[in-house]
Design brief:
The structure is a single chain. The chain is mainly alpha-helical and about 170 residues long. It folds into 2 domains: about 80 residues; about 80 residues. It contains 11 helices and no strands. Helix 2 packs antiparallel against helix 3 and helix 4 packs parallel to helix 6. The chain starts with a helix and ends with a helix. Keywords: Repeat. This is Pentatricopeptide repeat-containing protein. Pfam families: PPR. GO terms for molecular function: RNA binding.
């Protein structure tokens, strides 16, 4: 598709390129997605998120983390969606330390009370066995949702804390 556009003389704008990235991602053509990202003359956070999200969906957490670090050099200010996704990556890799570093960066960006970041943090800490830390984040949340309650219980259950699940 991309080669056809270029060969026909069509010069896509950033919006169109992001749509082409998404199309290739949805078709499972991640090697093409990575190639296109490298070849794009202009990229934005949507471009990066499309590719990182595709890698996460494939379970390529190492690739997603490497790409995040590359993105961070180009866009050092990111939002809650980025931190939530990267906390999922840290969870998938079992890297509590990296998750804590991401949480620290989110706090610096003023996202400490963001529900998406807090939920992802509870999930990451629960899956990685930092049950007390997950509980602390949960306790500090101004508004709890069904999702956050379930994440807290799932972390407890995953590590054999059945009584704590019942208490929650």
């Amino acid at each position: 598709m991309f080669s056809y556009m270029v060969n026909s003389g069509f010069e896509p704008d950033l919006y169109m390129m992001n749509r082409v990235l998404l199309m290739h991602r949805r078709c499972g053509m991640m090697s093409d997605v990575l190639y296109l990202l490298d070849e794009m003359p202009e990229r934005n956070l949507v471009s990066w998120h499309t590719v990182i999200g595709g890698l996460v969906c494939r379970g390529d957490y190492n690739g997603a983390f490497d790409l995040f670090l590359e993105m961070w050099e180009e866009f050092p200010v990111v939002g809650s969606h980025t931190f939530s996704t990267m906390l999922r990556v840290a969870s998938g890799l079992g890297l509590v330390f990296a998750g804590r570093q991401l949480h620290s960066c989110a706090l610096k960006e003023g996202l400490g009370r963001d529900s998406f970041v807090s939920s992802a943090l509870i999930d990451m800490q629960g899956k990685c066995g930092s049950i007390e830390d997950a509980q602390c984040v949960f306790d500090e949340m101004p508004e709890k949702s069904t999702i956050t309650w379930n994440l807290l219980m799932a972390g407890d259950a995953l590590h054999g804390y059945g009584e704590e699940v019942l208490d929650v």
